Amino acid sequence: MIEIKNLTKVYPSRGGAVTALDGVDLSVAPGSVYGVVGRSGAGKSTLIRCVNLLERPTSGTVWVAGRELTALSPKQLRAERRRIGMVFQHFNLLSSRTARENVELPLEIGPGGARLTRRERRTRALELLDVVGLADRADAHPAQLSGGQKQRVGIARALAADPHVLLSDEATSALDPETTRSVLKLLKRVNEHLGVTVLLITHEMEVVKAVCDSAALMEDGRIAESGTIGDLLTRERSELARELFQLGEAPAHTALPDTTVLDVTFHGDATARPLIAQLSRTYAIDVTILGAAIETVNGQTVGRMRIGLPGRYEDNVVQIGFLRERGLSVETVGETGAGAGTARLEEVAS
Amino acid sequence: MSWSEMRPLLWQATLETFQMVGWSALFTVLIGLPLGLALVLTDKGGLLANQAANKVLGTVVNVGRSLPFIILLIAITPFTRGIVGTTIGVDAAIVPLAVGAVPFFARLVETAVREVDRGLIEASAAMGASHLTTVRKVLLPESLPALVSGLTTTVIALVGYSAMAGAIGGGGLGDLAIRYGYQRFENGLMIATVVLLVVLVQIVQWLGDFAAKRLAHR
Fold first, then answer.
1. What SUPFAM superfamilies does UniProt report for this protein, alphabetically (chain B) (predicted)?
2. B97-139 pLDDT tens trace
């Protein structure tokens, strides 16, 4: 639905240019909820503004719904933008208009096409306010609404012109955790029921965990890592997966002498099977559990456990093989010592 | 001078003041509003950013604002004659009044429009709005309360200017006060004129504040 190819954005400034985007490729499948996470300054905001060309990229191409936006005339671009909804961190509602009138705004904009009558616009706006759960506040002005309510109006407005894509620019960053959850739930519902593809940027992993089926990590204007959540969680040494699913710091070597520390990730069927007990029985070893967490990420149950096996790594190759055969992903923790916190199994084994 | 003598004079002069201020305010809005908008739109980072145009407009406005009104009044008499065919009377006073108030109002418009959150302009662009649509649907409605306040200030300034315009034959309350009150020592009429002017300004201010408050939904 959204295809971004080799996008760069360089801001000229005194004392040298600033590169905000440095060769970004991104592909968002139709119907997905795609999250781009990163620290502030990583270029997320510039990236999402480049999707509907609020910012002109320095080079690269942007395709949305099969049209190359970067090649359109200003007039054609305006027509395409009408089908791309956008939700903002600070809501950006018109204070002079009521909630309903704010939702009607996109319907008043735009060249010819099927211009709606005043009554049709009104009906459509009330419908959408009902979808976002604000039917009873239709005549309130933004100043009379809470942050969460304002963002709901923002979402209703973004949906008014029947977009195929919804861009969310830190939509929940100004909201408290509880309101964030309800707004995210709404976004998910919009995605599922209206089939709108969502691209969101955020600095909160919680947001990705709650609604995204795919994610990308941005660092210094580049995509450091990307994939579906399922892929990322099973990918070893995935920084995103680690962030999504924190187990804390690795215990120091000296604290656990002669122990092989492993991070084991369960997903799919594996979550329902007593694999650690089997491991312990099969090889007659004592397994120490150092930490564990089970979470639901985008509807999938995923468990992660940090365990200690007696003996050095070489003594445990067979046991690790046992776990991997049963579909778990296993990472050794602290094995290579200085520098790398985790080492990839294959590297050590070869 | 008795009240019955004063009354028709005051009535006539008040009507003339209304005419001068009303018409000049109308022309001030018609010219000053687009001018003020242009100042914002052509400025750096604006929708129609154009440094050269912005400089020219800014300079014109500054020149207009730096001339004391009494000087302007006299300096543009040829221009006034060109437009209305005469340099005396109510019609002739409207021209310098509007010319004097346009740059004043344009700056107030500029300030008001600049106050509109950039996020709203961005949201409008994201919805596919053209620049013209953004001005019509976002910039003007969002700055309307501030524009009304600016217009109130401008109208009150025009009431003051109109007294000066009266002095060179424009008519109105200012003219009345000078001809009868100052030159003929008619203190009663002078006081009546002053009271009328004070009441007039109060009413304008009150109406303006009321309208601005009704329009703002903060």
1. MetI-like
2. 999 999 999 999 999 999 999 999 999 999 999 999 999 999 9
User: Which residue in B has a C-alpha nearest to residue A51's C-alpha?
Assistant: B126
Instruction: Please state, in angstroms and rounded to a whole number, the distance separating the CA atoms of residues A275 and A325.
Output: 11
| pTM attached to this predicted model | 0.81
Domain map (residue ranges) of chain A: 2-234, 251-349
Task: Answer yes or no: are the C-beta atoms of A346 and A292 closer than 8 Å.
Answer: no
Instruction: State the Cα–Cα distance between residues A12 and B82, nearest whole angstrom.
Output: 51
Looking at the domain A2-234, which fold is it? Rossmann fold (3.40.50)
d(CA B93, CA B168): 9
Residue type (1 letter), B42 = T
Give how far B136 is from chain A: nearest CA, Å. Answer: 11
Interatomic CA distance for residues A245 and A298, integer angstroms: 13
Q: What's the rounded Cα separation, in Å, for the pair B84 and B93?
A: 10
- Comparing alpha-carbon positions, the chain A residue that sits nearest to B120 is A92
Contact across the interface for B217 and A96, Cβ inside 8 Å: yes
CATH number of A251-349: 3.30.70.260
Angle between helices B187-215 and B140-165 (to 10 degrees): 170
Which residue in B47, B119, B127 sits closest to A110, CA to CA?
B127
